[in-house]
Amino acid sequence: MQASATKGQAGESYAIARAYRFADLSGYTLRQRLAIRAADLAFYLLIGLVGSTLRFRVEGREHWEEAGRGGRLPIYTFWHDRIFPGTYFFRRRRIVIMTSQSFDGEYIARFIQRFGYGAVRGSSTRGAVGALVELARLVRLGCPAGFSIDGPRGPRHVAKMGAVLLAKKTGQPILPFGVNAERFRRLPSWDRLQIPLPFTRVHVRFAPPIHVPADADEGTLAARREELQRALESVSP
C-alpha cells in the first residue's frame, strides 16, 4: 500500500516537473531545432526588455481576488493577440498554458517557460482531449491554468470551449481578463498580434469569475461559452 502511494506521488511530481521543463526536440530537423531555439530566445529577450518598461494598471482587482479566494485556482482566459504583455504581467506564477503541437507552439512553450509558466501540448485541432486531461490533472495538483482562448489559429476573438470544459472538470472558476496597451504596433498575423511600445501604459482588466457546474449539459456549456465571449469583449476593446 505504501509502495503504491509512493509510486503515485512520484507520478504526480513527474507530471508537474514535465510541464515546466523544455520538451525534447529530437522529432524536428536540425534546421527546425535551431529555428525554435532562435525564436524562443528572441521572444524571451524582447518581451523581457519591453515588458520591464511597461506601466501596468489593474482594474477589477476584486474579481481577481474573488476568483482565488478560499484556495481556488483561477483559469486565466484572454485573447491570443494580447499574449505579449500578458506573458510579462503574469510571469513567475506557474500558470500552465496549453500550446499547440506544432513548430510555432514549441517555441512559444519555451519562451513562456522561461518566464515561469508551464506548458502542455495540444490545441483545438491536435491533441485537444489528451492535453485537456493533462491540464485538469495539473490543476488538481495545484497548478493554475491559462488559455489564449481563440488560439492557436482563430477565428480571431472567438472564444472556444477549452476553459469552459476545464472549469467543469475541475470546479475552478474561469477568470476572463484583458491586457490592453495604450500604444502598440500590430503584426500581420492571423490574430493581429499587439506589440506594446516601450514605456506605454497597459490596462489589465478583470471580469467577474464564471462558474461551470460539474453536471453542466451541452446547453449550459454553450451558455457559459457565450458568457465568456461577452466578458472578454467587455475587457478587451
Describe what this molecule looks like in 3D.
The chain is an alpha/beta fold and 237 residues long. 45% of the residues lie in helices and 17% in strands. It has helices at 2-19, 30-51, 61-67, 83-89, 103-114, 128-140, 162-170, 218-235; strands at 55-59, 75-78, 96-99, 118-121, 145-148, 174-181, 184-186, 194-196, 201-206. It has a seven-stranded mixed β-sheet with strand order 1-9-6-2-5-3-4, with helices on both faces. The protein is built from eight helices and nine strands. Strand 3, helix 5 (103-114) and strand 4 form a beta-alpha-beta unit.
Percentage of residues in strands? 15-25%
Poorly predicted spans: none
**Average pLDDT, to the nearest integer?**
92
Please give the order of strands in the largest beta sheet. 1-9-6-2-5-3-4
Tell me the number of strands: 9
Please bin the fraction of helical residues: 40-55%
Order of helices and strands: HHEHEHEHEHEHEEEEH
Distance between the termini: 55 Å
| Cα shape | globular
DSSP helical segment count: 8
Short description:
The chain has 237 residues and is α/β, with parallel strands linked by helices. It has eight helices and nine strands. Helix 5 links the parallel strand 3 and strand 4.
What's the SSE blueprint?
Elements lengths: L1 H18 L10 H22 L3 E5 L1 H7 L7 E4 L4 H7 L6 E4 L3 H12 L3 E4 L6 H13 L4 E4 L13 H9 L3 E8 L2 E3 L7 E3 L4 E6 L11 H18 L2
Parallel strand pairs: 1-9, 2-5, 2-6, 3-4, 3-5
Antiparallel strand pairs: 6-9, 7-8
Helix pairs in contact: 2-5, 6-7
What are the defining features of this structure?
237 residues; alpha/beta; 7-stranded mixed β-sheet; two-stranded antiparallel sheet
